[in-house]
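Practice record 12: protein with magnesium ion.
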Amino acid sequence: MTEPNGGPAVWQGGTVWLTGLPSAGKTTLALGLAERLRADGHRVQVLDGDELRAALSAELGFSKEDRDTNVRRVGYVAGLLAAHGVTVLAPVIAPYAVSRAAVRDLHAARGVPYLEVHVATSVETCADRDVKGLYAKQAAGDLRGLTGVDDPYEAPVDPDLRLATEELTVEESIQRLRALLTERGLS
Ligand SMILES: Nc1ncnc2c1ncn2[C@@H]1O[C@H](COP(=O)(O)OP(=O)(O)OP(=O)(O)O)[C@@H](O)[C@H]1O
Ligand SMILES: [Mg+2]
């Protein structure tokens, strides 16, 4: 943090992408983290998967190509905001490694920090949580192409942080996220 001319604190912007299966806990952790960061004076923008799809990608479906396009769009917006000092939290499934790599590369090209967090929750636990009822719909045969069940999820091989939510409370995960941001000079 710097305080130019004794003015308000200015934080380094950056993007924290939370990838994981549906119901893994991405939104829960992003909103909890956002609250803490705002309390510390950060400018924070949460780019939630569902919201961004509705706003920017309403014409897209859930094919591999459309999912990739959606992730790249969110990544582009994240990069713009982060370059202007905003801490961007992106709780977005982003199932394909190639799409996530494209977002990482875009940030690198702009010299903007990018952190990938794997919200690592087993498909069994996600199906139990089933916040949106998608796992039940899939099981009933009313939905096809559910990430992690009958559609691919390529788990990050080397994320900046992996959160095993079955072993951590929400609070503990948020603390680990904050520690990561501090370690990388973003908090
Ligand atoms: N340790 C934990 N960490 C995170 N979430 C947890 C944990 N234990 C229970 N939960 C619950 O799991 C649910 C996760 O839902 P959430 O909407 O955050 O998932 P999501 O990953 O954003 O899913 P989607 O991709 O469908 O948007 C919440 O109801 C949350 O309270
Ligand atoms: Mg969510």
